[in-house]
Amino acid sequence: MTKKTLNNIFFLAGVACVVVMLLTFDISFSELWFHLCTAGYWLVPVIGVWIFIYGLNALAWRAIIKGNTDPDEHVGFWRIYKLTISGYALNYATPVGGLGGEPYRILELSKDISKEHATSSVILYAMMHFFAHFWFWFSSIFIYLALVFIGDLPINTTVGITLGAIALFCMAAFWLFQKGYKGGLVVNVMKFLSKIPGLKGWSQRFTERHRESLENIDKQIAALHSQDKRAFYTSFFLEYMSRVVQSLEIMFMLLMFDIDCGGGVIGYTLVFLHSILILSFTTLCANLIGFLPMQLGVQEGGFMVSIPATIGHSVRASLSPQKLIAVGFYVSLICRVREILWILIGIVLMKMWNKD
């Protein structure tokens, strides 16, 4: 099967998923249009901020590619930017996010650099993407505690247990990532697959045929962490900052509902910190149930729970719990529309400026 054929398969799969999403939307299109008109000009920054988020993602991936390839191999930023948007479009649209976007990125990037370097670069970036996620969730614990300290958020036994569980979960993930970065990941994953009924024979045959390539990919993964620490930490910083910038999307929507915590520098700072907590809680829920396309239902529930749970005392005094839940639903609705729009952009980009 040629690379062009595989590209067409990814393209058609993405189109099919978008059609299914549109046909299974929870509300009518007339009601959806009404809500979008209500949002008005706020849609511009909500959608536009993703230009910068994907830019940070692309820069993080480029840092890994530059630190993981030979000097004579080169991939331009705009090509990486295009593959970043298209890869995330497939990840959002397909079940078990990553089974669509990552193979597509490897397929396309191997047109620019060797297949081994393309594979290891994509795996390293996927690892970095999740590694930054865990640090974002972990640091959000301290943001919550800081807001508790100034009397803006409550603390009780349930909240304490939840924060403790998240901290343990993140620290366990840090340990696993450390082992993966030091010793590689691919060979161990194939060994794990060989223990699953139904995959044992295939994984053993695949490992035997490609053992040298798999071991080389693992060596490249370990080398970036141990030898090129500048590329590693540059990529990590950019990926982490992309989550921080993403919080602006939620902040814009909270401001749209006049939730400004009193306004001014202090008020807007509090709104931004609450937006970080809302994004952190919602993405944690969505990633724990990542086998649903676009995390259907999970994202909506995450926003409707996280906004009432992480909003400050001053806002709770002026808005009822029912109103805050309604705000959560509306925020999730706008985010869903933004996702569909960027999925469409990513799918269109799959057919533009392609290399043979």
Topology (elements, then pairings):
Blueprint: H1 3-23, H2 29-39, H3 43-68, H4 77-93, H5 101-109, H6 115-149, H7 157-183, H8 186-193, H9 200-209, H10 211-227, H11 229-256, H12 264-288, H13 298-310, H14 313-318, H15 321-350
Helix pairs in contact: 1-15, 3-4, 3-6, 3-11, 4-5, 4-15, 5-6, 6-7, 6-10, 6-11, 6-12, 7-10, 8-9, 11-12, 12-13, 13-15
Helices and strands, in order, run as HHHHHHHHHHHHHHH
Strand content: under 5%
Question: For the residues shown, what is the average pLDDT?
Answer: 81
Described by the principal axes of the CA atoms, the overall outline is globular
Give the C-alpha Rg: 21 Å
End-to-end C-alpha gap = 14 Å
Number of DSSP E strands: 0
Low-confidence runs: 291-295
- Backbone structural class: mainly alpha
**Helix count from the secondary structure assignment:** 15
Helix content range: over 70%
Largest sheet: none
Description:
The chain is mostly helical. Helix content is 79%, strand content 0%. The chain contains 15 helices and no strands. It has helices at residues 3-23, 29-39, 43-68, 77-93, 101-109, 115-149, 157-183, 186-193, 200-209, 211-227, 229-256, 264-288, 298-310, 313-318, 321-350. The longest helix has 35 residues, at 115-149. It is globular. The two termini are 14 Å apart.
